[in-house]
Design brief:
Blueprint: H1 3-13, H2 18-25, H3 29-38, H4 43-52, E1 58-62, E2 68-74, E3 77-81
Antiparallel strand pairs: 1-2, 2-3
Helix pairs in contact: 1-3, 2-3
Length: about 80
Amino acid sequence: MKTSDLVRKLCKQNKLPISELAAKMGQSPQNLWKKLKRDTLTVDEMVQIADIMDATYFQGFLTDSGDRMEIRNKKGAKESCF
């Protein structure tokens, strides 16, 4: 599943049209649609979407040696854990 698919699914679940999400992000609907089509949302934009949707966004790596690197949003603030 692509990142853009996750955003669309989250919008559908929250009954929030993409155009309204774009407005809450301070972007035009056309700009957000283009980013979704190209699947080029940034981590900062994903964190912003999670905050708007009252969700938690996380992204990371878990290595074979057990090292964990992740980015999460937590109540509107980004937090990096290494």
